[in-house]
Structures are given as C-alpha cells and as structure tokens.
C-alpha cells in the first residue's frame, strides 16, 4: 500500500484552497464578533456519553469511538460541535442572561454524509443561548444569510420547518425509538405509499396528518394556508404555525436576495430540534449548505435547561462554492545581501504586503500568489515596479 494514500473520503486541503478557507474563516468570525458573539474552541475528543448527550441516534452512528488508555472509558471523536458548545454554556460559563457563542473547528464522521463527498469537515457556526423569543431565531437566520453573502453567494433559498408540528401530531402515541426513526425516514423521503402502510397502526386522524405533511411544501403563504386547513387543532401545532408566520413576516420585510419556502416534512434532526428549523440552499449544491434551528432540550440534557438556537455549516464546502478570488498579490525580490533591500522588504511586510525572495536557481511555483510587482534597484535605491 502507498503510504501517502488517505482513508476513503478524507482529503488534504492544498495551498490555494487553504488560503481561501482561512481568509473566509477570519472574515466570518470577525462578522460574528461584530454581532457580539464570543469564540469558543471545544476539544476534538470527549467522553462519549458527554459528547452524545441530548442528541439523536444519527450522531451516535456518525461518531468515531475509541478507548481512553488513561481512564478506560470510551471516547468519541466529535462529529458535531454544537452539543459541545451547549455543554460550555450550561456548565462552564453558567450565565443567567443571553449568551452568544461561535466556533470553527474540525469534525470527523464515520460515514460519508448523504450527498456529501468528505468525512471530515471544518464546522463553523453560531449559537444563541438564553432567549426563547422568535427574535433569536431571526437573528440566527440573518447571520447565516450574511455569512453566505460574505462568501459571495448572493442567491439563497431558505427552507423553513418546525419540530413542534410532529410533536403535536404524535402526542399521546406510544411509539418506540425504532418506530420514530422509521417515521422520520419516511417523512424525509416523502414516501407516501410506505408511510400510509406504516401508519395503519395509528388512529386515522394521526395517519392523515402525517400523510398531509408530505405535501405541505412550497411557497410560504400557500403552505401556511393549507396547513391550517388540514393539520389537527392542537396547541403545539398552532404554536408552531404561529412561530413560522412570525419568521416569514420578519424575513419578508428585512431580508433581500433570499427565496423563502416551507417544507413541513423536512424534519432532519427532529430528535434534536424543538422549534423553528431552517436549511439554506445555494445553486451548485444538491444538499443544504447550512442547517440550523432551535434546540431548547440539549441544555436540559446537561442538567441546565436553556433556550437555544443557531446554525452550522462546513467551511470547506462554502469555500469550494465561493466565487471569491483566493489568490493574493505578491512582490518578487532578489535574494541578495543588501541592507537597503532588506529594509524595503521589512517595510512592505509590515504594511501587509507579501514579499517573496527568489532563492538562487529557484523557479517560483506558488498557485496561492500572483506576483504582479517586483523590487528593482534604481541607482542607490530599491523601487517597486509592475511586472
């Protein structure tokens, strides 16, 4: 076996792309800081029971597991940073008011995500803790759209859903974990024939409501009107529809360049989320570029109930789609022992310029840089000239 081969769906990030990723990371984290978000950096390894607290079985299947030689306990290599940030808010910061946190770090997944091409991601996200109001959901959506705009992705399709609708429909039904997983899969795929057959064990009104979810997708006004007609009257369902109406109203007034829609069967992460959910799509990518929503129950699982909402995305995917030019302009300089030249180079670098001194016999190969100027000696001084 060639020793330089990597595991399946694991890849190196080469210079030009790495520069683009890092430039975006810095700009996006600066954007989050301008909104008052504080940066945290959780460890890549944790005890498995802590890492999976408050999450669904999907995350368990995606988590690499190993034994800690010091404690003998099972460790997990994180597949998602969000639960770690919830733990930090609940137990380390332990604040009573609203807390805004952001992060950027590597995650690894045991299986390649559906529609994805890599098992390693650079996950970037922002979370708001301590606010149960719809304003927090809207801030998270606004920040996500600004993130995509900063990366040069101007046309965004935002799909909304709500975990409370399924909660209301299924109230009183004693379904085990396996049955919930099956239902979740059928709703995601909108497989009406199999869903109809599966739901024969449920009361007729519940089965009808589940089937209705598979058709409640499309333009917001149309879906909301139909949902009010066909979904059962239930406090959780009514509250969910009211939450969605508020988000749609706020987004319609304040956000431009985004196409809004609703898909009430898009319940990915249903076991994890508890309220408004959203997925952002862009041209050129079949799966969502980012997902987010409310997850009030995760903090409770850590022993401290805290309202929470936020989003995350893969920065590597975002950089790959971004039309922004990642090449940086640079200055060429000769490699000679000249005090005047060394001073000019130092001054340029202090001003943020990239100066590449060409080694004797070197043929410069740097896809990351575009050398558009060079230092040329004119008399007794070194001058910057265009190439």
Automatic annotation (TrEMBL):
Family: Belongs to the class-II aminoacyl-tRNA synthetase family. HisZ subfamily.
Record note on quaternary structure: Heteromultimer composed of HisG and HisZ subunits.
GO process terms (BP): L-histidine biosynthetic process
Pathway: Amino-acid biosynthesis; L-histidine biosynthesis; L-histidine from 5-phospho-alpha-D-ribose 1-diphosphate: step 1/9
Transmembrane segments: none
SUPFAM superfamilies given in the database record: Class II aaRS and biotin synthetases
Protein name according to UniProt: ATP phosphoribosyltransferase regulatory subunit
Main location: cytoplasm
Binding annotation for L-histidine: 80-82, 123, 127, 268
Alphabetically ordered keywords of this record: Amino-acid biosynthesis, Cytoplasm, Glycosyltransferase, Histidine biosynthesis, Transferase
Other remarks on this protein: This function is generally fulfilled by the C-terminal part of HisG, which is missing in some bacteria such as this one.
Span of domain Class II Histidinyl-tRNA synthetase (HisRS)-like catalytic core: 10-317
Summary of the function given for this chain in its UniProt record: Required for the first step of histidine biosynthesis. May allow the feedback regulation of ATP phosphoribosyltransferase activity by histidine.
Compartments in which it is found: Cytoplasm
């Amino acid at each position: 076996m060639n020793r330089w081969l990597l595991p399946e769906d694991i890849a190196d990030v080469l210079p030009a792309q790495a520069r683009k990723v890092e430039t975006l990371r810095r700009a996006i984290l600066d954007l989050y800081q301008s909104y008052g978000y504080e940066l945290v950096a959780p460890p890549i390894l944790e005890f498995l029971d802590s890492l999976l607290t408050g999450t669904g079985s999907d995350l368990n299947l995606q988590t690499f597991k190993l034994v800690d030689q010091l404690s003998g306990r099972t460790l997990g290599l994180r597949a998602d940073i969000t639960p770690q940030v919830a733990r930090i808010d609940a137990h380390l910061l332990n604040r009573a008011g609203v807390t805004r946190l952001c992060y950027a770090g590597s995650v690894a997944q045991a299986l390649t995500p559906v529609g994805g091409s890599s098992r390693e991601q650079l996950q970037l996200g922002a979370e708001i803790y301590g606010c149960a109001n719809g304003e927090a959901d809207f801030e998270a959506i606004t920040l996500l759209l600004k993130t995509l705009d900063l990366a040069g992705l101007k046309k965004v399709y935002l799909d909304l859903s709500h975990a409370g609708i399924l909660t209301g429909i299924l109230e009183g039904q004693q379904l085990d974990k396996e049955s919930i997983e099956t239902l979740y899969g059928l709703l995601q795929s909108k497989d009406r024939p199999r869903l109809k057959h599966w739901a024969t064990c449920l009361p007729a009104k519940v089965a009808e409501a589940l089937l209705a979810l598979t058709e409640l997708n499309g333009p917001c006004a149309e879906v909301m009107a139909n949902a009010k007609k066909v979904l059962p009257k239930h406090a959780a369902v009514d509250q969910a529809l009211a939450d969605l109406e508020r988000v749609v109203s706020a987004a319609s007034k304040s956000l431009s360049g985004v196409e809004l829609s609703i898909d009430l069967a898009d319940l990915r992460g249903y076991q994890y989320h508890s309220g408004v959910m959203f997925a952002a799509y862009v041209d050129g990518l079949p799966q969502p570029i980012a997902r987010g929503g409310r997850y009030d129950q995760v903090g409770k699982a850590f022993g401290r109930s805290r309202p929470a909402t936020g989003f995350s995305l893969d920065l590597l995917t975002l950089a790959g789609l971004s039309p922004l030019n990642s090449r940086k302009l640079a200055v060429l300089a000769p490699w000679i022992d000249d005090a005047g030249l060394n001073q000019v180079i130092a001054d340029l670098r202090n001003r943020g310029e990239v100066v590449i001194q060409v080694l004797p016999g070197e043929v410069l190969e740097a896809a990351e840089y575009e050398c558009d100027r060079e230092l040329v000696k004119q008399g007794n001084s070194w001058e910057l000239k265009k190439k």
